[in-house]
Design a protein that fits this description.
The complex is a heterodimer of chains A (96) and B (477). Chain A is 31% helix and 4% strand. Chain A is mainly alpha-helical and 96 residues long. Chain A has a domain at 1-46: Histone, subunit A (Orthogonal Bundle), CATH 1.10.20. By secondary structure, chain B is an alpha/beta fold. In chain B, 36% of the residues lie in helices and 13% in strands. Chain B has 15 helices and eleven strands. In chain B, strand 2, helix 4 and strand 3 form a beta-alpha-beta unit. The chains are: A mainly alpha (96), B alpha/beta (477). Chains A and B meet through helix 1 and helix 2 of A and helix 9, helix 10, helix 11, helix 12 and helix 13 of B.
């Protein structure tokens, strides 16, 4: 477990999360999330050496037949889109 | 009329003594009178409810009964904002399965209730649309995240309401507002059409004034749904029919880790008195231990935030909801849309969740938390070898003041210290009224059952309710 003094780099993580933060938010979150990480570091005390990551081994996949079934029409699925054209979502240009 | 229980209301509807439309009208009058104070509702279309009431089949289990819905559940053609600016203007294109089931049972959908944004919070202060007030003291929070549903039922602005519970978001507000609130076993109720926060923890449940009504509501909304692969295919018992069997011969466990320093002495006293009441009714009280209890909040804030960071990635300005104005490129669109659309608590949790899943930290945080989660579930499994249900406080304190904890997220997280482990273990819990503090603030008793233990859990709840007056008290509004 990361020790409780390890601090989170909020600017870096916010970028990973595609979240633009103001300098004030970064400073506030840095402090608050530092406190939360300090609190959760108590998990380092627990001996987990005998526990499997998946827990009890009664997990199995539940598969269904791959069949076409009624679903939303394109018009319904697109109805909430901020921008659309010709049954497609429109986004800013990605490739120059 | 708005103070009637659902069975009382159904009696009047089925004999024709009142019409469903009049019920909607009376409820709308009540909302107009008290909701300016409580602010429990976000959207309410009374005309639509009247139209539904006019065609309601009163022979059905909830025929003509208006039900309020937390603003996180999709109702076709209606807004579903999750109390977030990022979903302003969104119109649900389909019904959640619980809504389909309510409609099939004759219910009249009535209003969407306020909540913490994306169900993240314990006070409803994280709503983008304003704070809901506790009906027992308007300066205090109603609990959360389903605070609007709890306040609406406690304030007699709704006969019953749906909520969701990821770490206590039904049981804690039920306790703080003096209603009955059930968090069913994971997989008991379909999550199809529920906007996901933490998919391995989320479960839809109900708020009512009494246990009998909660049992009736659960009968209607529970059951397997092929559209939710985590719902489980097993029969739904007639919960209402086993309520009256009493607790004689049942073994009720009291986990010592739930009576700790920091619990309000008035809360402890009320819960201890409830335990004595059960003893006097012939239940056997057994002390049990849940040794990993003190780790539950830490495990939760790793797993829940990890899952939320993935689930909320879909709010990116492409498919629905808000998009930032004039983005200069796609990353600018994502970054600003999410910056402008999400509130502070949602941002905090997305960052924490992204961090615990990020390269280099995954094993130390997320994997370790998953392992401790299994140990918490195993604690409960062993405890239920010694007893049929557990008795605990729902919340360590009564409702706190608005603004008291907003600057300190960690203190806010600790409000759910007694409810969170139930979600981590995937078992069921209910909060019922068990008294008031000297300031006349409600106190809740939590009854916890094993997986699929709702029948016994509700029977235990009903036995206490029949012997005590708390659920009959009404807030002065």
């Amino acid at each position: 477990m990361a020790d409780s003094t390890s601090s989170i780099d909020v600017t870096y993580v916010a970028d990973l999360a595609r979240l633009r933060l103001s300098p004030e938010e970064i400073a506030t979150f840095q402090k608050q999330l530092g406190d939360v990480l300090g609190y959760v570091s108590k998990l380092a005390e627990v001996d987990v050496s005998q526990v499997s990551l998946l827990g009890e081994a009664d997990l199995k996949n539940r598969l269904r037949a791959d069949e076409v079934r009624p679903s939303l029409s394109a018009a319904e699925a697109l109805a909430n889109a901020p921008a659309q054209d010709n049954n497609l979502f429109v986004v800013p240009r990605i490739i120059e | 009329m708005t103070s009637l229980t659902i069975p009382e209301l159904r009696q009047k509807l089925s004999t024709g003594a009142v019409k469903s439309r009049e019920v909607v009208d009376q409820l709308a009058i009540r909302v107009a009178a008290v909701d300016p104070k409580l602010k429990a509702y976000l959207h309410l279309d009374v005309e639509k409810a009247r139209a539904a009431a006019d065609v309601a089949d009163t022979s059905l289990p909830l025929g003509g009964v208006p039900i309020a819905i937390k603003d996180v559940i999709n109702v076709k053609g209606d807004p579903c904002t999750c109390a977030s600016k990022i979903l302003k203007g969104y119109v649900a294109p389909y019904d959640a399965t619980v809504i389909t089931k309510l409609r099939a049972a004759g219910a009249v959908l009535f209003g969407r209730t306020n909540m913490d944004e994306f169900a993240m919070g314990s006070s409803t202060e994280n709503s983008s649309w304003g704070v809901t007030r506790n009906p027992w003291d308007l300066d205090r929070i109603p609990g959360g995240s389903s605070g609007g549903s709890a306040a609406a039922v406690a304030g007699h602005e709704a006969f019953a309401a749906l909520g969701t519970d990821t770490g206590g978001s039904i049981r804690q507000p039920a306790a703080l507002c003096s209603c009955v609130g059930i968090k069913p076993t994971y997989g008991r109720v379909s999550r199809y059409g529920l906007v996901a926060f933490a998919s391995s923890l989320d479960q839809i449940g109900v708020f009512t004034k009494t246990t009998e009504e909660a049992a009736l509501m659960l009968e209607v909304i529970a059951g397997y749904d092929p559209r939710d692969n985590t719902s489980i295919n097993r029969p739904v018992p007639k919960y209402t029919q086993s309520l009256h069997r009493g607790v004689k011969g049942l073994r009720l466990g009291v986990p010592k880790e739930y009576f700790i320093e920091g619990i309000d002495p008035e809360v402890e006293k009320a819960v201890r008195a409830a335990i004595d009441e059960y003893k006097s009714q012939g239940a056997e009280i057994v002390e049990v231990s849940l040794p990993h209890t003190s780790y539950a909040v830490a495990v939760y804030y790793i797993i829940a935030t990890a899952e939320c960071s993935a689930n909320l990635a879909r709010f990116d300005g492409v498919r629905y909801g808000k998009r930032a104005d004039k983005p200069k490129d796609i990353l600018d669109m994502y970054g600003r849309t999410r910056a402008e659309g999400f509130g502070a608590e949602v941002k905090r949790r997305i960052i924490l969740g992204t961090y615990v899943l990020s390269s280099g930290y995954y094993d130390a945080y997320y994997n370790r938390a998953q392992k401790v989660r299994h140990m918490i579930a195993e604690d409960f499994r062993l405890a239920f070898e010694k007893c049929d249900a557990l008795l605990t406080p729902t919340s360590p304190t009564a409702a706190f003041k608005i603004g008291e904890r907003t600057q300190d997220p960690l203190q806010m997280y600790l409000a759910d210290i007694f409810t969170i482990a139930v979600n981590l273990a995937g078992i069921c819990g209910v909060s019922i009224p068990c008294g008031f503090t000297s300031n006349k603030l409600p106190i809740g008793l939590q009854i916890i059952g094993p997986k699929w233990g709702e029948e016994t859990m509700l029977r235990v709840a009903h036995a206490y309710e029949q012997a005590t007056p708390w659920h009959k008290e009404k807030p002065a509004l």
